Amino acid sequence: MGIIAWIIIGLLAGMIAKALMPGRDPGGFFVTILIGIAGGLLGGWLGKVLFGVDSIDGFFDLSTWIAAVVGSMILLLVYRLVTGRSRRR
Prior knowledge:
This protein is mainly alpha-helical. It has one domain (7-20, 28-82). The protein has helices at residues 3-20, 29-51, 62-88. The longest helix has 27 residues, at 62-88.
């Protein structure tokens, strides 16, 4: 997949992850894209390590989107924990 496809998947996966995880969301548009792109990579890596599947096959494959959204949700949770702690201090 090309860089444009990764940006689109990142944006959409980050937005879906934010919609599925209620609560106060730190960051804006660019943070959503970065979390989504990194989440896609994390989800693909976890799918390969844990289940032995290649989950990042193509733009229109369901496994790509599931991996990206799950990875984005994991990173969004970590990001909320890190930024939440720094705001309390």
